[in-house]
Amino acid sequence: MQLPMPLPADSGPSDVIHVNAHAQIHLEGDARAVLIGGVPVFRFAAGDSAGESFARVLLASSGAATVTSVANAFDCARLSVYRELTRFEEGGTEGLARRKRGPKRASKLRDASERRLVALKRLGVPNTQIAQKLGVTESAIRAACKRLGIASTSPVTMPLPKERAGASDSAAAPTETPPVAAETLTASVDEPSAPEADAADALVPAPSDVSILQEPANVQLPTASTTPASEVAVEPMSQSVSATASLDAATVPAVTALHGTLEAWNRDGDRLLAALGLLEEAPPQFGPAERVRGAGVLLAVPALCASGMLDVARDLYRSFGRAFYGVQTIFVAMAFMALLRVRRPERLRHRSPIDLGRILGLDRAPEVKTLRRRIAVLAARGQSEEFVRQLACRRASAIGDAVGFLYVDGHVRVYSGKHDIPKAHVTRMRLSMPATVDHWVNDRDGDPLLVVTATPTASTARELPSVLEEIRKVIGERRVTVVFDRGGWSPKLFAKMVQDGFDFATYRKGQIPKVRLSRFAEHVGAFDGREVRYQLAERELRLSVGVRAREVVRLSENREHQTSIVTSRRDLAAVEVAYRMFERWRQENFFKYMGTEFELDALVQYGVEPADGDRDVPNPARRAKEREIVAVRKEIAGLERVLGAAIASNEEAVRPTVRGFKIANGKTGKALREVRERLERLREDARSIPRRVTAAEVVSGEPVQLRTEAKRLTDAVKTVAYQAESALVRLLRPHHYRRIDDEGRKLIASAFELAGDFEVTSDELRVTLEPAASPNRTRAITALCAELNQTETCYPGTTLRLRFAIRGG
């Protein structure tokens, strides 16, 4: 056994800094040595900042010490150590050397100011006015012009095409348009509601871009003497000058020429064109890139294109007018956000706009306020209901037999804001709360097909007719079976459904007579690739309105509970009726998944809008009276329990008659009679109060409801994203990935987060993704890439076919 060695008492300051039990830093004069496990591994001099940085990186990256221990030993911040690790990974030991601080160009003009300088010089603005706008001296402007190679103060022009100038093929020189007078220029740009969030200093090309676009004579530009390029005022679209409309076929080559001179990821020229009204949407443009975070989300592009979402969006919403971020870009961005679990626009702050911009084919993604403004503009057009309907029509025609069974259920979104909106019953909380109800229609596989915003406070039975009307618009004249829960129980509704060409399946409601156990038999069936076994019995059922239906009763495994299913389908086997009814839980799982992964219940747009004041709602006065009746009934039940206990303990030798018992318990009997009389009066009062009244009679002011347009629009995009996930999971199923039913969506969601490299050829966009967390997942994603490559899908807005691969796969 080794005894501990006694240490001498400290007689002075220690010349050893202990990082931890395994690593130390020895100080010997001006020399410093790093020891790990008693072995010197690195030596540097005092004052050598690069050597000290490498020592910290060596200790932290080798695992000899934690970042916290290293920071404490060197008396620095943990963030500094993390930054050094990043610089070392990116640039090696050269990245650790401290660079010279200070400006690398003229101190007064930065990149943004230089871009504004170039734009103003192109408009012919004098140096004195440019200096005043940029807040610098005129000498600084002259120096910047000299540094940037701008020798003349006159605007530089681009020759117009021959068709525009009216020149013949034999013309000696193209005609140049004289510069536009600065005094005659006025402003109107991009967006009807507010200026583009990131169109301030990024609207003009970089100083290195020497190609200049000559503006048409009838295009009005910002006034050089009063309005800087970064402070362009915004007018309503109906009042602004439509610069795009003034472009003719001769101007298009000039615009195309400007596009061709830009780098792949440099979109400053497009931002300039958007500011000048010459561009309605920046087209996707890709270039080489490495380690783009979230590049795996491009795996969903074939499914997104197949859904038809972008085609419907272009047909309905067309464009925003003059803009850099157009309709297609916004819808693709919202779909990618949903797939990457960026659940709200505000969470874009936590994502790199550069990486998200790369997968959009842009220099950067739209910022939070830009995206919110775009959604507000789309919502103001009131096309969300038609957008959802057209998507559902395309979906129904694509999935075919999957719409043979449709599941309908209401989803309650609880509201906790300050506005007074109608209440709805929240089943999971067992109480009524301010809420909005949406009725979702899912197909046989559980994927969403359609969503209908319900009338506030309406039950499923009252809302089903309007839902069935929407379903008929989507599926046409084919006959389908609609499956719903007890909330839709209504014999009158069943009769109307059968008459209108619908079949139904639902749980029976009310007092249900039990079926004898001897009538149950085992039924076996195979559906969706799995075998099911039920104990079932059948019987005929005649409803109150004369409708004859089929009742299938299932016996639980413990043979104590019976579940009754009522349907109009007589052609189906009993086991299939039971299976389709119990598969309604797929829709419940869908609600839970969408709420957790896509934040389905979150508000997208704040505020309220006027609601229909003529709609009927439950009468609050009737409800108050019914609550009083319930309280009186409880009081009666309590008094009856007291009398019952008295009867049980009555001594017949003392009180052998009922008369004697009543006399002995006279006070309790009198109280019971009084309470029963009060109950009858309350019932009479309740009968005189109508059950339902109009909403205008209930609320004190104007009836309101939460805004629906933006919410319906974003929910539609999220359902398309969910359908894309489902399509990718189905592509994985033939490759025998284990636990595909339990982990398939988690695998796809993790694949979306993979980083990747971009390589662009003349006709292909090659995306090479990083390997997944485990070999079996990597193999599954590799097989998925092979399946997607066979679709020959082009990235929306380009002619580049997507080609996927896994690094090292």
Q: Short summary of the structure?
A:
By secondary structure, the protein is of the alpha+beta class.
How many domains would you count in the coordinates? 5
CATH architectural group of the largest domain: Alpha-Beta Complex
Q: What is the CA-based Rg, rounded?
A: 37 Å
Structural class: alpha+beta
Low-confidence stretches: 1-13, 153-262
Per the principal axes of the C-alpha atoms, what is the gross shape?
globular
The CATH superfamily of the largest domain is identified as Transposase Inhibitor Protein From Tn5, Chain A, domain 1
Instruction: Give the CATH class of the largest domain.
Output: Alpha Beta
Supply the number of helical segments.
26
**Percent range for helical residues?**
25-40%
Strands, count: 22
- Mean pLDDT over the full residue set: 80
Please give the largest β-sheet.
10 strands, mixed
- According to CATH, the fold-level topology of the largest domain is Transposase Inhibitor Protein From Tn5, Chain A, domain 1
Distance between the termini: 54 Å
Strand content: 15-25%
